[in-house]
Amino acid sequence: MIVVYVLIAVAALWIGGLAFLRKVWFYRDPVREPEQRDGVIVAPADGRVVYIKRVENGHIYAEKLGEKIPLPEITGCESLQKDGWAIGIYMSPLDVHFNYCPLPGTVERIHRVSARVNLPMLDVWEYIKVVWLRKMVDMFARRYHLENERNTIFLDCNGLKLAAVLIADKFVAKIRCYVEEGQKLDYSQKLGFIERGSQVDLVIFSDDVEFEVEINQQVYGGKTVIARLVGALKDDNMIAAG
């Protein structure tokens, strides 16, 4: 009889723990402020950096595939800008799932792409490796990265163009968008929310940036400085912010 009671207690704790994680912990909303301001770009999401790649003539080279991936395959639409950098951040179920404005600016355009079926980002072993063992795997240009549902928010930050791409995982219930076209945003204002596991890519249409983070580094949305603006670009954005 004691064994039965123990089993019931363990089951109750397990169910209660899952309910807490799914209904409370997953939706936590901490206050976020950038570590620094003026001339910096902060992370648009919590998670681990899965790639930092150069964008050249509207394409990103995938070493594993040995081919160039057209940028619209990631953003879901064409962009007038063709060169710069892209950084991908994988959000595990343990991360905060709100997404944040990386640099003060104006929402220039929002483009949503639906998908008939969302593909899983990781298999079981990769999930354990990334989420629990904290070891990153190469996730760039996998099928989910190019085919899953996404919501792309284009920002004009005093002439510097950015694109935040919110990408759904297989188990995502909904991508929520909290901004509208023409809206002015400051550092760390919420862009949206993605249910459960997902990924956010940030495309920076400029060469005048220096990254402050590395592959597999944990970052915190609206807080961690991921890159710095250099040269005239930095001065212009500081003047605009002032």
Shape: globular
Rg over alpha carbons: 19 Å
Oligomer: single chain
CATH fold-level topology: Glucose Permease (Domain IIA)
Instruction: Summarize the biggest pleated sheet.
Output: 10 strands, antiparallel
Report on this structure.
This protein has helices spanning 2-23, 72-75, 124-132, 143-147, 232-241, and strands at residues 40-42, 47-56, 59-62, 67-70, 84-91, 98-100, 105-113, 150-157, 160-168, 175-177, 184-185, 190-194, 198-204, 209-211, 218-219, 225-229. The protein contains five helices and 16 strands. Strands 2, 3, 4, 5, 7, 8, 9, 11, 13 and 15 form a ten-stranded antiparallel beta sheet that branches. The longest helix is centred in the first third of the chain and has 22 residues, at 2-23. The protein has a single domain, classed as Glucose Permease (Domain IIA) (Distorted Sandwich). By secondary structure, the chain is α+β, with helices and mostly antiparallel strands.
